[in-house]
Amino acid sequence: MRSSLRGRLQAKLLHKPLKDHSFPSGHTTAIFSIIIPFVFISGLLALLLVPLALLVALTRVYQGLHYPSDCIAGCLLGTFGGLLAVVVI
Predict the structure, then answer these.
(1) Are the CB atoms for 37 and 49 separated by under 8 Å?
(2) How far apart are CA 31 and CA 52, in angstroms?
(3) Of 51, 66, 85, 89, whose CB is crowded by the most CB atoms within 10 A?
(4) Alpha-carbon dihedral sign for residues 56, 57, 61, 66
């Protein structure tokens, strides 16, 4: 019984994690570029959205899909894109 429970609780990774590198992380870039304008609209939303975006970046690394540097670059690029959208619009 314990072995079957252990099998169900193990994390499921994709077939070949980190086989094809993606720099920067597209998911992290997208989430940060989306949340930054909302953070400027309402500072209270930052308390919910920033941890959510960080969680997206963390899960990409945890699942073995990206290196931490991929997610950091995605965070910076997405933040810059979000700030650019705020300034332009």
Answers:
(1) no
(2) 9
(3) 66
(4) positive
Q: Which two tokens stand for residue 46?
A: 């930052």
Estimate the share of the chain in helix, then strand, then coil, as percent rounded to the nearest 5: 75, 0, 25
Query: Using the 8-state DSSP alphabet, how is residue 17 labeled?
Result: T
For residue 43, CA distances in Å to 38, 40, 83 come to 8, 6, 14
Q: Annotate 66-89 with DSSP letters as a single string.
A: S-HHHHHHHHHHHHHHHHHHHHH-
pLDDT classification of 74: cutoffs 50, 70, 90: very high
User: Among all chains, which residue has been given the structure tokens 């990206």?
Assistant: 66
SS3 43: helix
pLDDT at 89: 86
Query: Which secondary-structure segment (H or E) carries 21?
Result: none
Per the listing, tokens 């072995």 go with 3
